[in-house]
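Protocol step 4 of 5: obtain the predicted structure for the target chain.
Materials: sequence only (see below). No template structures provided, no constraints applied. The aim of this step is simply to have a reference model before the mutagenesis design in step 5. Sequence pasted as it appears in the construct record:
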Amino acid sequence: MSSLAKRRGGRPDSALLVCLTLAAAFAGTRAADAQVPSAAGAPVRVADFASELGAVLSLDPLLGTVSLTRDGDRAAFKPGSPWHLLGDRPVRLTPSSSGPGGPLLDGTTAAYLSAWFEERSTERLSRFRVAAVLIDPGHGGKDPGAVGEYGSGKDKRKILEKDLALATALQVRDALVERFPDRRIMLSREADTYPSLEERVEMANAVELRPNEAIIYVSIHANASFNRNASGFEVWYLNPDYRRTLVESGTPGVDDEIAPIVNVMMEEEYTTESVLLARSIVERLERNIGASSRNRGIRAEEWFVVRNARMPSVLVEMGFVTNEAEARLLADPAHLRSISDAVYNGIVDFIDYFENRKGTSAP
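Step 4 output (structure tokens):
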């Protein structure tokens, strides 16, 4: 297990059985939560109910539990028990039973569960949320990016920016998927291929979002300079003076006279959030590799990917491959892991801040 996985941890599946077994203990202190439908209804097969609800059905033969999951929300129960776990809240409902086609839900219980899932969906629409992250490892394929060397003679080694960027991006992606299994975590490339700059940005801009959902763009690179002594890490964001067309004329729901005002407001918001994202990543890099690599801070520039991504976006430069000492560091898997760990944690810090600043928390 990676150091990231160890640190983040997680709730074991067996905790579900514990919660269901001990749910009755909450009966006295949480009586207000125990809403029991009064009207009877025809039983419904759990499999059919899950299909109509658009939920994922999970049956655990070892624990004897049934789970229904939709958009990160989970309802769980054990056939024959009146206690149902809705999220982390135990509720006493009419027990489910067993049938020839699998577990059967009482009709009134099914109606209650359906209403709960709909309520959760409505609540989610009102919450601000980073629903997607696109990690863009720079260069690739025919484009090696910056090339560096370290060592001498037969021990001389070459290091390519495209390889460093991909290795780091894969580690960041895997960590984010583990941390946010209900969100879209994407890579612009997963192997030694070369998507064009336009294709990378379009991949992010084409992501469909619900109301109050956002996406962020993180491009990962290694640096180079004619000055062989140049070293350190930095994170770039779009120059605040640059103006993108974020809302096109003729956009449904936006009057053409209002579009320029909306553009300015969105640009200011994206700039603020890009600066916060850049700062979060730099602070984490400082913690992880500041003792061995110079902190060059956050900087503004009009790089293609950050100026064309219609969202908060940053470009991470993890170090200079043209500096022999730093190239040697970047070739060390442990150092590269520290960088990916920092980028991951910087993104998580930003997401936590973004969602709490908007008056919400992640589901």
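Step 4 remarks: The first strand starts at residue 44 and ends at 45. Confidence is low (pLDDT under 50) at residues 1-40, 359-363.
Proceed to step 5.
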